[in-house]
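Reply to dn_fold:

You asked what the input looked like. This is it:
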Amino acid sequence: MNTAPAILYGGPVIGPLPRLLAAATLARTADAGAAVVIVLAAVRVYGSPAPGSLALAAMLVPHVLAGPFVGLVTDRARRPRLVHAGFAALFAAALGGALLALGRAPIGVVLVLALVTGCCGPMIFGGLSSRLDDVVPEPGRARARGLDAATYNVAEIAGPAVGAALVATLGVPWAAGALTAVCLAAAALLLSVGGRAGRRPQTRFTDDLRDGFRAIVVSRPLRAVTAATCVASFGLGILTPVAVLLGSRAGHAAGGGLLVTALGAGALAGSLLVARRPVRSAPHRVVLACLVAGGVVLAAVPFAEGWPLLVGLFAVAGFFDGPLLAAVLQVRSAEAPPHTRTQVFTLGAGLKLTAASLGAAVFTLFADAPVAALAAALAVSQLAAAALGALLLAPARAAQRMASPAGTRSGRPPETSGSRPL
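and this is what came back:
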C-alpha cells in the first residue's frame, strides 16, 4: 500500500504540508512580483528606474547578513510557527510600506523599509524550506522537497508577470496593497502550520551562531554543495540580460522574457517530476550531476540555429534546475545540526542570492561583449561549479573507498556523520 499521499497531505483533512507550501508560494510570489513593481513604480513616480533599483538593492543586501541571525532566532524559538508568521507579517508591512512610500516620502524612508523587507527575506526563502522537517515525517521528505522546489519555480514564473499586470491595470497603490494582502495571507497560513515544538535553548546564542557557520565548513557534502551553488548562482546572475540579448539577436523584442519563462517552466517540470519520483542517489551527487547537465545544455546555446531550438534549450536547461534545487535542500536538511538547521538554510540561501547579485553587477563590465561569448560564460560557470563541488568532495570519496562495505552503502562519507551534533 502506498502511504506517501497520507504522509504528505495528512489524509482527508488538509495537512500542514499543503498549508506550508501554499504559504511559501504566496510569499515567494509576492517577493518576486515586488522586484518588478518597485522598479515600475519608480519609473512612474520619478521618471527613472534608478530609485527603484536602489530600493531593490536594499532589499537584496541584507539577505546574507541577516540570514544567520533570522534563522537562529527561529531555531531557538519554543514556537517556531509564531516566528515564521511574524517575519512574514513584518515582510508584508515593510514591503507594502516601501512601495507606497515611493514618491510620497524621502528616499531614505523607502530605503529603510526596503532594508527591513530584506532582513525578513531569508525567512521567506530558506527559512520556510527548513520548516519541512518539522511537518513531514522522514519517509515523505524527498517528495516534499520536490514540491517545495516547485514553489520557487512558480514564484519565479508568476511573480514578475503578476506584478507587472497589477501595476498596468490597477496602478502602484493597488499593486502594493495586493502584494501586502498576499503576504499577510501567507502569515495567516503559517500560524496554522503545527509541527514539532522548539527546544529550550541550552547554549548561548553566539555558540549556536558559530555552530551554524562551522557546520557548513565541517560537512564535506554541505561545504561542496554550498560552494558549487554559489559559483553557479554567480554565473546565473547574467542569465536575464543574456536572454534579452539572445532574444534581440533572434529578432524577438520580447524574446528574453520568453527564454526566462521557458527556463522557469522547465525547472517547474523538473521539480514536479522529483516530487513524483524522487531520485535515489545521494543528494550531493544529484547537485553536481544537474550542474553538469545544465552546463552542457547551455553550452549549445551559442551555436543554436533557430528560435524554437533556443527556447527548447533553455527549457531543457531549466529542467535540471528542479532536481538540483530539491537536492540542495535535502543536503542542507541532512547535514545541518538540528539546533542550527534554519540558520544553515537561511545562510545558504543568502549566499546564493548574494553571488547572483555579484554576477549581475559583473555583467555590467562586459555588457558590450559578443552575446555568444556571454552565453558561453554562462555555461562555463555551471561546469566550473560542478568541478569545484567534485574537488571539494574528493577527500570524501577517497575515505569511502577505504571504508567498510556497510559505510559505502550508506552513500555518505563516514566522517561527515560526526558533524551532526555540532
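Confidence is low (pLDDT under 50) at residues 1-13, 404-422.
Hope that clears it up.
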